[in-house]
Design goal:
The complex is a heterodimer. By secondary structure, chain A is an all-alpha fold. Chain A has 20 helices and two strands. Chain A has a domain at about 265-483. Chain B has one domain: Orthogonal Bundle (Helix Hairpins). Helix content of chain B is about 75%, strand content about 0%. Chain B is built from three helices and no strands. Chain B is elongated. Classes of the chains: A mainly alpha, B mainly alpha. Chains A and B meet through helix 5 and helix 6 of A and helix 2 and helix 3 of B.
Chain lengths: ~475, ~100
Amino acid sequence: MIAELLAGLVFIPLGATLLVLLLPRQARGYLCFTAVLALPLCLMPLTQAVWADGEITLALAEFTPPLGIVWRLDGLALIMLWLTAIVAVPVSLHALTSFPPGEQTGRGFWPLWLMLLAGINALFLSADLFNLYVTLEMITLAGVAMLGIGGNALALKAAMRYLLLGLLASLLYLLAVGLIYGQTGALDIYLVGERLETDRLAATALVLMITGLLVKSAIFPMHVWLPAAHGNAPGPVSAILSGLVVKVSLYMLIRIWFWMAGDWELPAAATALGLLGAGAILYGSLAALIQPRLKMVIAYSTVAQLGYVMLLFPLASINAFHAASYQLLAHGLAKAAMFLAAANILWSIGTDRLHALTDLNRKLPVDLFALALAAVSIMGLPPSGGFLAKWLLLEAAWQQGAWGWLILISIGSLLSAAYLFRVIALTCFHPERRHVPTRWQSPPSSASIAALVLALLAIAAGFTSAPILGLIDDSLPPGGIWP
Amino acid sequence: MTEILFVLAASVVFGIGVWGLLIAEHLLRKLLALNVMSSSVFIIMLVVAGGGPDGPDPVAQALILTGIVIAVAATAFALALMVSIYRKTGRASITEKGDDDR
């Protein structure tokens, strides 16, 4: 019975996507918000079940692999599902005012957002290479469409660039799935992992897959589409894209690397992935330091923060695994909070150019507080989720005597402190540079509360490590990870 | 032997697609190039699907069909996005203004 709740995670938002356009205008908001609130309610009993009995599986329509498709819920998937649900509720609260479900913009936003949620939940549950492809495509299409809702020319162009690169990446992935299916006759990740032989064909497939997923998760130097897309998207859409959508393909990369190819000896490739992460951290942070607009700073910070997750591949220990999962979680919460706060600032004064943002500590205290709290977590200051993630990563590097990675992590933290303190200093401490704002309207209080709740959760993630790390310990990859 | 022919053909088609995607200026051409590329991927999957002792593999063919459906949907959506870019900027292109005076 409990396994059927897995289907609820996907089919509740999917059903709401179809229903929302049929309902009268007044009822749409209630339906959408109820569908989003149902996600944490479904997750609670599932969490208890995973806690007690470990992994839950559901064979769809009772067909078993290799022919059928199985959904698997283990600790790592559960954490990512919780991240999705926890980010979804405040973002939806924000969207109720920024994209009212009864109006034209809301008619575009809400069906896409619910479809995106269905796709994300389905992806985290999938353990089947082709199922992962379909859900990833669903997520990309919904994400690109959401980017274009506002209809501003910059966002539309960014959406097109994202779409072209995204489709190219999916084709590479699909080609790899074809090659792997040809060799193994299976699509289930566990079965493929058992049957796949390490030869040239399999290596080609793995390279194609990883390249495709790196493009989708905007890892340096394939990040070119991300800053324009996340920096120009309308308010809550930036939070969704940066908080959730880029995590999805990174999660897939981790699954494929450690679950499917877990027993391969690939130290050179792992180091190469780590070096890409290093490039992302350094380039993203330096680029964030010189951006003239707040949302662009936050977007480049996403490029940098995703780099930390890539250090999992060369370090490949339990501590690194904890750190990477925690980084996905903490960054998702903090980045969504930052983008929601930035959306409120943009809404109030009509611009997010940093030199125009003066005196915000008096005008928008709640939003600025949320921005600062989220910044604490991104910088990795204690006590916050981001601190814990970086601390675990440092510990993993220390244990293996990997001094290069250790120095990199420290430099990355210093750089992130530099670009975020620049933002906070410019927004608070320049009363003499008074630009007369061209327009001013205070944001709806629910929008400010949404940003604040997410920021507080990003800090609170620093105190809830024991149960989360326990869940991760129960779902370590089957082979190939060091103690 | 025919398998090698198919794989070679698919590689050539894939190359043409990549070339078109990189070189083309007009978005319609870029989208066509992507579709050409997806055809080559489907050819390779067909090679994988065919040729067993008990005839072609139905699962691989089902994968190709799903892939085609997704490609059609993505293309339709991309075309709609292209039209709205054209309406907004007057050009069906994502490169900056100065680039196209070649």
